[in-house]
Amino acid sequence: MLLLLRLGELMRKPIIAGNWKMFKTRDEALQFVYAVANKVPAIEKIDSVICAQFTVLRCLVKRQGPNLRVGAQNMHFADEGAFTGEVSASMLKSIDVSYVIIGHSERRAMFNETDEAINKKLHKAFENDLVPILCVGESLADREAGRTEEVIKRQLELDLAGLSAEDVKNLVIAYEPIWAIGTGRTATSEVANETCGFIRRYIAEAYGDDIADSIRIQYGGSVNVKNIGELMSMPHIDGALIGGASLKSEDFLQMINIALTTKNA
After folding, report:
1. Which CATH number covers residue 142?
2. Mean pLDDT across the stretch 70-79?
3. How many folded domains does the chain comprise?
4. Residue 176 falls in the annotated catalytic set
5. What is the pTM of this model?
6. Which structural domain range is residue 158 located in?
């Protein structure tokens, strides 16, 4: 098992995704993409992704170039219908979006997203050839009470229900402790790696070693230029889901290059 994980670690391509949340007008988004599209490393070496708000997705896709990819921050699980303010997976696919964040803690907490809804979204994303970035994580109260693994296992069981092993293999999981998101607090690299390792072990038990060795697991939670190198040095951390620190083009590029250098070291 450990040997398999080590071999899998060497083969997994890093993935750095910026989550812009509710920031950037169209002009600001264009300024950003013009600054980074031709500077991100080759997509064969690392996946560089910007997850933006719906209003700028198409303009980013049109200018992403060969090595940058664009993702949405959310989607509905229905194909169409009377769901005011929502966007479907097929709508995202029709404008060539590649990724979609599903189950972010802010969606769970502020918009009452349930694991049942998240599971439906994952199924619909795969039906439309979108790569989901599934977010899981515990609250500070859960962490302090020693319930981290219990909470994350329950989320994974419910969120992944009914997905095929091939779907899970192509999924990206982002471990984002809720207590570290937007707070400036970051889990130590050892704590983050330990929890990402637990996620990988769960995947191994549920879907087999091959899937566990292949699936990419990100860490998210106040990641920045200063700490990304240490986080990426951990064997179970394959990338980062980055919030506020991804809003500046120069920082985004620097973090991608640090991640790539660290994993190739």
Report:
1. 3.20.20.70
2. 98
3. 1
4. yes
5. 0.94
6. 2-264
